[in-house]
Amino acid sequence: MSNLREAPIGVFDSGIGGLTVVREIMRQIPQERIVYFGDTARVPYGSKSGNTIIRYSCQDARFLKTRGVKAIVVACNTASAYALDALQKEMDVPVIGVVKPGARVAARESTGGNIGVICTAATAGSHIYRKYIQSLRPEAKVFEKACPLFVPLVEEGWRKDPVTRIVAERYLQEMKDRRVDTLILGCTHYPLLRSTVGEIMGDHVTLVNPAYETAIELKELLKRENLENQGDSKIDENPYEFFVSDEAERFRAFADSILPVDITTARRIPIEEY
Amino acid sequence: MSNLREAPIGVFDSGIGGLTVVREIMRQIPQERIVYFGDTARVPYGSKSGNTIIRYSCQDARFLKTRGVKAIVVACNTASAYALDALQKEMDVPVIGVVKPGARVAARESTGGNIGVICTAATAGSHIYRKYIQSLRPEAKVFEKACPLFVPLVEEGWRKDPVTRIVAERYLQEMKDRRVDTLILGCTHYPLLRSTVGEIMGDHVTLVNPAYETAIELKELLKRENLENQGDSKIDENPYEFFVSDEAERFRAFADSILPVDITTARRIPIEEY
């Protein structure tokens, strides 16, 4: 058991967006080791079909399992929307996604039950946020909106740019018209656009970042299952390991701009073989 | 030999952009049958590394080979930039890409030898257009510029939109500053933005669409190799076949907006197995 407590947490995402979840885990439970896998060769998942998302997500989790992880975090809304059930069935370690933690806090904290979700086309098509929020708060109204240009705009480095502002105004108009009181940033890239989205929606709208809520849920899960690392990961030489499916340079540059630690190594692995 | 003459032409692309090449082939050599494969599960290639692009492209071509094609057209600038040599080595049928036909006409027709290329990040990074143009016209100046937002803007359906116009103006400013006289639309999605690009660059700049030049080169190749279909493909019940690696609905909708024929069927195949 002590061995398992010292095992790392596995985190995967379709690419680099999941690093916003890693950032929250590092902040909230700094004593834990992390193994991250980003499927940078097959990114994005948000425009793919459910079956393909499930197939790819299971390969991602199987790879993490080979690294001896004690729990798996699906740090991608699209993969959480489609693959969480399949992963929980296949894996013999706890698996949590980002959708339920985000949905739960929105259902609890929405003042008027008018909740918006901005996300990928695949996540919107799954209606998973609506289903889960309404299972907790049946009278809630949930509006899901795909914003396909947000990810490429973030990846182009145009986080604070007039173009991004215009695109965001157009995508968010429907949310303003519907007078949502709470807006879920339902894609792991979107917290990087938080200030633009916040300015457009206004102070009276609560923005929910599922990455933050997921780190809290992970912390509680580890406690409940007696899986908390009792030591200090920082004495470990390499507490954070990063793997990708395409070459690592671009990943490293982006990771360095998001994470509070240096990504000294990121290794490519052949994900199709898992 | 008569059998081979009646065999279809294989065309592949990372996704849907290659349909602009199919459209030109249909126009210029309507008697030929076509088998198209779009790697919609793994799209885009333009942000991936060279090695991954080669691996995926070889799988795409191997699949086409199982359909009995007599020649293969790499209808993707990124795949042409990285994988053409590997494909020509591996395949026992002629393989042509879109880069050389586009580069050749630009080198020949540029009035002042000042040539711009707009393309994906991977194509720009390969400098293949510059190398090939300068091999034909050593004094030419070639400026390559990645425009990563063009593909998502086209796929969002914002072909003629103020946002696309602003983004295009920003991307193209460098080309205007350098006073290019010829601009290659070096990604198969970009002909769909032709009118916006043309308006910004002005009438004095020649726009080169490699899809058009590739269809001409294909026609000449078939003639030279005695591979022309002597019959009429239109009497065939199903002269055009479409395959994809992800589910087919979205592909079908986009294809219907580009091609002059109805895409009645598009089938999903497991491309990782080729």
TrEMBL record, chains A, B:
Isomerase: is it a keyword of this entry?
yes
User: Quick one: which residues bind substrate?
Assistant: D13, S14, Y45, G46, N77, T78, T188, H189
Coiled-coil features, chain-numbered ranges:
none
Name a GO molecular-function annotation.
glutamate racemase activity
- List, alphabetically, the Pfam families matched: Asp_Glu_race
**Pathway assignment:** Cell wall biogenesis; peptidoglycan biosynthesis
**Catalytic residues (UniProt):** C76, C187
InterPro entries membership: Asp/Glu/hydantoin_racemase, Asp/Glu_race, Asp/Glu_racemase_AS_1, Asp/Glu_racemase_AS_2, Glu_race
Q: What is its EC number?
A: 5.1.1.3
Query: Origin, by domain of life?
Result: Bacteria
UniProt key word Iron: no
Keywords assigned by UniProt, alphabetized: Cell shape, Cell wall biogenesis/degradation, Isomerase, Peptidoglycan synthesis
The record's catalysed reaction(s) read: L-glutamate = D-glutamate
Q: Which family does it belong to?
A: Belongs to the aspartate/glutamate racemases family.
Give a short account of what the protein does: Provides the (R)-glutamate required for cell wall biosynthesis.
NCBIfam families the UniProt entry points to: glut_race
Q: Can you say what this protein is called?
A: Glutamate racemase
Source organism (scientific name): Anaerosacchariphilus hominis
